[in-house]
Amino acid sequence: MKIFVLGGSNFIGWRLVQYLGNTGNEVTVYNRGNHERIYPKNVIHVIGDRTDTAKLLKLAENNYDVVYDMCAFTGAQIKPTIECFKNKVGRYVFISSAAAYLDNQILPIKEDAMCGEHPQWGKYGNGKYECELLLKEAYNEYNFPITIVRPSYVYGIGNPIDRETLLFDRISKSLPIFIPYSGYGVIQLGNVDDLCNALYLIACSNKGKGESYNISGEEYVTLNGLVRIIEDIVGKKTNIYHVLPEKYGFAQREIFPFENNTYFTSIQKFKNDFDWKPTIGLLEGLKQAYLHWCKAPIKTNYTNEEKLAQILKGNGTL
To answer: What gap in Å lies between CA 183 and CA 170, rounded to an integer?
Structure first.
């Protein structure tokens, strides 16, 4: 297959490119070159910006079997890209997000649930949904061969976002962990390598055109549980403090890397359509990520946590 990856230098995109490097396909990666990477031998790296439509249109003339769009975050970004690849691609896989969903009273959230600007995920989720609407419009108008993927929290080897790595860092240093509210919010994490496997299955199949799919892990965990699991993996205990973030002038995500919001999706539709299931359980995936982090720790930023610690020390709470 001839595969084109838009983005492909940051976390999910880079892991996908590494995965594709082991498939023997002809892969072209197009990004701004902001991350220094050594690409697999079967990968051609082209430096450019997706807003350079003339350059993108020229590349699209290669008529790719599959395009993976890893980096469209607004409708304005994806609209010209759709025009560039019109009638020039066999499948266009768009990486959206479960953040596109609105609050749902029935869990797990299925693909037909309402989408829009969620009060906690804000413009990021709404921007992804704008992209989805334009892609679906193109599918309905001229059968543009889209498949939309909505991952939940993605974790795993090489994650540069201050999520599990922040917890690895603070717990390994026996620093306190501040969890918003009760910490009983239930979340869903999906391993990046399971996601890459799922994305490749889409490329290898004629199924799923015009469809949207949730892809994530099968397990759910509370924020409290996640911290305790990572404590066991690291082999250290730390002090956990449940706090009201707004009382001290913080938003939830400013003091803890996950929202205390029960929010998880059903992945049954993708499992059924592609005979797929996650192979990396949460405990095993976190262990893999931690061992990788130990070899090359990623610098994390917990300035807000330290500010909160000083406040709590000052009032005698810590």
So the answer is: 17
pLDDT in tens, 132-178: 999 999 999 999 999 999 999 999 999 999 999 999 999 999 999 99
Residues 3, 22: Cα–Cα separation, whole Å = 13
Which residue carries 């026996």 as its tokens?
A: 174
pTM (2 d.p.) = 0.96
SS3 172: helix
Give me the domains of the chain, ranges plus CATH numbers. Answer: 2-155+189-215 (3.40.50.720), 164-187+218-264+280-312 (3.90.25.10)
Residue that the structure tokens 């994530």 belong to: 216
Orientation angle between helical segments 282-295 and 223-234, nearest 10 degrees? 50
Q: What is the CA radius of gyration of the chain?
A: 20
Angle (deg, nearest 10), helices 282-295 and 164-172: 70
Digit-coded pLDDT (tens) for 95-105: 999 999 998 88
| Peptide bond just before 160 cis, omega within 30 deg | no
- Which ranges of 88-246 does DSSP label H, i.e. alpha helix? 122-142, 164-172, 192-203, 223-234
The region, left, alpha or beta by phi > 0 then psi within -120 to 50, assigned to residue 141 is: alpha
